[in-house]
Amino acid sequence: DNIATALYQLWMLGALDNTGELTPMGLKMADFPLDPPLSKMLIMAEAMQCSSEVVTIVSMLSVPTIFFRPKDKEEESDAVREKFMVAESDHLTLLNVYQQWVQHRQSNAWCAEHFINSRAMKKVHEVRTQLVDIMRQQHVPE
């Protein structure tokens, strides 16, 4: 049952054809060390001219939560987190956090001040660099 569901998902994403063979899209998707929907999202972002934003969002989704909430500062950390919120989307909130982190020169002090895990953000940056490298190999502009 799980295998059938996975095959159906790959077919729906265009990674498999009707005979179960990998499609050109599936071959591209297989190059990324990601869940298939995230791989497809990266590939399709080129057509929508938002590859840079999507690779950042996918990278942010690839690590455990970036926010921390100390028990003695719950209200303060919640208030700081709200400043990053984008009402339309949690994904845009993650993009906003990353862009601000880069704008503040990837500062550990900035992370601490905003209750953001600096190690997680460094991991996000590593993942993003790896994905951008794969995108370049596939001639997908960032």
Question: What features would you describe in this structure?
Answer:
The protein is mostly helical and 142 residues long. The protein has 8 helices and no strands. α3 (36-45) packs antiparallel against α4 (51-61) and α4 packs across α6 (90-103).
Radius of gyration: 18 Å
Q: Helix count?
A: 8
SSE order? HHHHHHHH
Give a short account of the largest sheet: none
Shape, per Cα inertia axes: elongated
The stretches of 5 or more residues where confidence is low (pLDDT under 50) are none
Calculate the terminal CA-CA distance, rounded to whole Å. 37 Å
| Strand portion | under 5%
Query: In terms of structural class, how would the helical and strand content be classed?
Result: mainly alpha
Overall residue-averaged pLDDT value:
94
What's the total count of β strands? 0
Helical content (DSSP H or I, runs of 4+): 55-70%
The gist of it:
Helix content is 62%, strand content 0%. The chain has helices at residues 2-12, 24-30, 36-45, 51-61, 74-82, 90-103, 108-113, 118-137.
Helix and strand layout, with pairings?
Blueprint lengths: L1 H11 L11 H7 L5 H10 L5 H11 L12 H9 L7 H14 L4 H6 L4 H20 L5
Which properties best describe this structure?
single chain; 142 residues; mainly alpha; 0% strand
